[in-house]
Amino acid sequence: MNSSNLNSKNEQAYLDLLRQVLNEGMEKGDRTGTGTLSHFGAQLRFDLASGFPLLTTKKVHFKSIVYELLWFLSGSTHVDYLQKNGVRIWNEWATAEQTARFNRPVGDLGPVYGHQWRNYGASKLEDGSYHSDGVDQIAQVVKQIKTNPNSRRLIVSGWNPSEAEQVALPPCHTLFQFFVADNKLSCQLYQRSADLFLGVPFNIASYALLTHMVAQVCGLDVGEFIWTGGDCHIYQNHREQVELQLTRSLYQLPTLTLNPDVDDIFAFNYEDISVHGYESHPAIKAKVAI
Known about the structure:
The protein is an alpha+beta fold. The protein is 30% helix and 21% strand. The protein has a domain of 169 residues: Thymidylate synthase/dCMP hydroxymethylase domain (Thymidylate Synthase, Chain A), CATH 3.30.572.
């Protein structure tokens, strides 16, 4: 279980941030009533050529990451696709109690990530659904990367102020920007609210995967994934789990493989995406704060 030099540079930076917030974070209240240790403003950089950043100090459920990202890219905001594929990470937000707050049927999450990525600013119908007259930000940014890779406008926004109060959980990862240099695609994410123990490992792997997928369909190699966090926090009821994770040594990062025949960002299926050589410590259970 010796640490590789490559993973020391990648996963170790995340562990260092965990330790910093655990030891130095300010105690704050939060909407869940759980309480947090919080630090404002942090950045982590991952060299995607050095291995796929799937944490090894605890097992991270890669299947859920892949299906969630494909769900975002589809533009769907109903959890039926996730549930049919055994992914439960959005179930707590899709209950009758949660959706009734917005007069939506069970399972309909409203204008969350998929809507904002694929139909931003769409006009609303009388039944609460949406016209398909919004901006397809994903299609637009892929076209821009292909035709104008030097653009400084390669941006997708998940935050729509006019709709942020129309969902139970407004987007936490709010904006990402692509950057092309030396035939390599890099991506930087800004995350307004960062649950460092539970959420951020998923977010890092998800956006690293998205960067690989976009790079492939645009004929580019991968560069860096840069994660930038706003309110970076550890929930008070996760402190014991964080302390356990920080005692663990590192394994080598796995390798991501994509089906090379896929040249359309919307054509990827679960079977087209896999990781190889993923070795990790056991998962660490923790309660999600709702």
